Amino acid sequence: MAGPLASRQKPERQFAPGQAHTCVFSESPPKLIVSPASSSLGQKPELKDLILMADSKPLLSLDGDPAAAEALLQDVFGIVVDEVIRKGTSASEKVCEWKEPEELKQLLDLELRSEGESQEQILERCRAVIRYSVKTCHPRFFNQLFSGLDPHALAGRIVTESLNTSQYTYEIAPVFVLMEEEVLKKLRALVGWSSGDGVFCPGGSISNMYAMNLARYQRYPDCKQRGLRALPPLALFTSKECHYSIKKGAAFLGLGTDSVRIVQADERGKMIPEDLEQQIRLAEAEGAVPFLVSATSGTTVLGAFDPLEAIADVCQRHGLWLHVDAAWGGSVLLSQTHRHLLDGIQRADSVAWNPHKLLSVGLQCSALLLRDTSNLLKRCHGSQASYLFQQDKFYDVTLDTGDKVVQCGRRVDCLKLWLMWKAQGGQGLERRVDQAFALARYLAEELKKREGFELVMEPEFVNVCFWFVPPSLRGKKGSPDYNERLAKVAPILKESMVKKGSMMIGYQPHGTRGNFFRMVVANPALTRVDMDFLLNELEQLGQDL
């Protein structure tokens, strides 16, 4: 086969199966020479052979042909622009091309083999991966709390991946150490803090876990060295509408899921401060030590915002750390019109905020913000690794932020947000948030006009939750099996839309409510046309149910 991958040298002679041999490079360009080993299989190569290998030219990709490497990347970028950006954001294309797992395995040919493949085959692999992947940037992808594609953020992601550095020391990531702090400073200012600390984390779940660990360390610093034996039974408090990462974090940190005390929520999904007070007193009466309250700004399903001022009052009375999980709703702080939903957030000790959700920055971009100015992050997590965080460096070593985090290697997550913000400005991002609210309201009003659609509740955020009632169930709400039959509708319609490739919407049960759709209005490219399509498509898919 022609091309650079077909030009590999073959051994000059063959050996019997099992006969040991060594391979070295010589000449310029390098030529592979294979000779029988002077001893049995498994013995280390001779020193002279290793030296010859070290003296050879660098083993670059594509046989050291930089022109071929550049051509490959140009071809891949071309495929990405055409298949992901152009087609993947077009309403006339499918959101997904569904295949059953066994068929998909065969189509992708996932097996990893000893021999490499040609450039043409590699490009075809890229096309296949894109073809059978869900297009989350598509205007009809409503399935998750993230969607859409911002070109400036994508440019930042491409630059980030190309530079391939780790965000732990100034010496290897000078631009990004300074950039991360500037971005975090801006996010803190939106929360209402003039100072503080923070770090980008690998997702909102980890941000929440960091907050729990910091709150525990602040109260019991000995636990860093002595572990759980330094702790009394602890209790943390969160709403029944909280993200599941709170219980996962409690388990991961050794607190145990029993340490998570569930606070009741009202009919709209908001934490009830009076029940929080009661749960704190109950925990104390049972011998536990309360240490943290995790409130939520933008719950996953209903999009509810907990009453932060009242919750902060409770935390202040009891001396508890207040964490606000604003992974979903944090971006509302950019909107002068809607930021009142987070009134009181400035009183929190920590905030989790995921710009990769409502702002469409791209996965992943999750910030943990702290009001603390005592270097709590580093005191809690630092281990002073001498090979990395030398204190006698030639620059200000406080710029080496890597000891603040649990990770060693840490990807750069600030560039995509910074570049998008530079392009859009705060005003442009505010318009995005306001537009999402406006479209969610438009959808809710259109739902009310159509037979067969029923809102679960009036939306407060950009989560629009509703049932589609098919023709066979209309007018039968009082029948004994109505709720059971209605709960089966969303899964059936979800299968139909996915296999057709027309759109994707999430559904779930919630408390005593049977399955309903949760429409997420987050993609900045959405218009009223997309809202109308959603309703029309559900009517078409469900007309025979």
From TrEMBL:
CDD domains, alphabetized: DOPA_deC_like (cd06450)
One GO biological process term: carboxylic acid metabolic process
Annotated stretches, region: Disordered: 1-21
Keywords of the record: Decarboxylase, Lyase, Pyridoxal phosphate
Keyword Transcription regulation: no
PTM annotation (N6-(pyridoxal phosphate)lysine): residues: 357
Cofactor: pyridoxal 5'-phosphate
Pfam families, A to Z: Pyridoxal_deC (PF00282)
GO molecular function: carboxy-lyase activity; pyridoxal phosphate binding
Record PANTHER family: CYSTEINE SULFINIC ACID DECARBOXYLASE, GLUTAMATE DECARBOXYLASE-RELATED
Family, per entry: Belongs to the group II decarboxylase family.
Quaternary state and interactors: Homodimer.
The protein's name: Cysteine sulfinic acid decarboxylase
Origin species: Sus scrofa
